[in-house]
Amino acid sequence: MARQILFIDGVGGKRYMRGALVRYFERHGYTVHCFDYLASRQSLDAIKQNLMHALSQAAQRGEYSVIGYSFGGVLLRMLWNEISSAAIQPSKVVLLASPIGAMRLGARLRDWRIYRLLCGECGQFAADRAQMATLTMPTVPTACVYGTWPWLGALGILFGFGFAHDGMVAAQEAAPPAPWPAIAVPASHAFIPSNPTALDAIGNWLTATH
Question: What does pTM read for this prediction?
């Protein structure tokens, strides 16, 4: 079983924000490495290049698992063919509140100046139905953990509460097609990386035999 985890953060996420997640998995015997980026200033190509380097480093240290949070999961899927070709793929993947298809929130906001400034090319990619449709699921055991607590986030304000979502990503956007496991937890998007129920679900998935 892999005893190291590479956590790929979402847009705007930083290492110092992930203390609860790091402490949780360190208590369970893992070494956790965090990858973050600055979507407002870095090009998507530069971010992917840096992530590929981080994945290569993880593979050099031995067997590892990946948690791709929000757009971090999208980045992992964008690179999957390269990762597989280089034989540096993780043993397991968790896509945490990560959109599988285009985000309706991104499509609504993609032309807003503040959204473009903060999210850069990453935000535009996540909002593009055709581009998101080109991404495949990882070919190693993969679970999708996503939130259904809608009260914190712009999705509820702009689209309402007539469907399941975590405040940013709709449940139907984060739930994978069969046969990939889908695990819904009562958590909001911003806080799901530190949510105890989500962390337990991830931990159980990583230690289970698949």
Answer: 0.95
